[in-house]
Design brief:
277 residues; mainly beta; eight-stranded mixed β-sheet; 3 helices; 19 strands; 8% helix
Length: 277
Amino acid sequence: MTSLTILETGPLATIQDAGRTGQASLGIPTSGACDRASYALANRLVGNRDGAAAIEVTFGGLVLHADNDLTIAITGAPCPGVPFNAPAVIKSGQVLRLGPPRTGLRTYVAVRGGIDVPPVLGSRSTDLLSGLGPAPLTAGLTLPVGCTYNPMPGVDLAPVADPPAGEVVVRVTPGPRRDWFTDAAWATFTTQSYAVSSNSNRVGVRLDGQPLERARTGELASEGMTLGAIQIPPSGLPVIFLADHPVTGGYPVIAYVADPEVNTCAQLRPGQSLRFI
């Protein structure tokens, strides 16, 4: 059996694939890779089939041992000391170490054949909110690698830009509860620079800044939530929903992040500046 062994995990390392799609009506979140573009690129670089499971690493620190010769690709937040945005072979017995990334937050490690752990409800993704899927990776864990894949793509390097290091500007469209906020609040929302909170995680990016004023009070019945929804809890400070977001929520959604830019939000670090337009 082809496998790799986890020696160190860093702050957080999980197994992620394309997620548990189409089951929200049953109360099952989608989960899956936070930065879907980087995850998909890593799989393409090693010839994996769509939806193959990879490792999502939060702020580096992953150390793995190749138990056999492996073909890998590493994408997303660029970590020093490893091949990046390119397929590479690590020999049996070799140890791969991911240092802290110079920009961005989440790095993806794809192995040719995919991480072959048992699927749960059709996905191998770790969902930190619901507890579905495999547990977060731990030191000493051996992961099996699958043997099903496509031909290698014949690409030596994917010329993809690193996640931005400075202030990030994200496009939004008004949400279904825009009218729950004053015009002054909307102006504040679309002009101020927010700081990414250290309380952010795979559920959502929490932001610090000037609270938004509501135009109306009262409770809101629980509604369906989607990826990229920006919810405003009683604190008045936005939360951008990421991969492990709940299926429903009871706070007003003021706006939605444009879909391609949800991947950008998934790479935001605590303390980084964000502005909505």
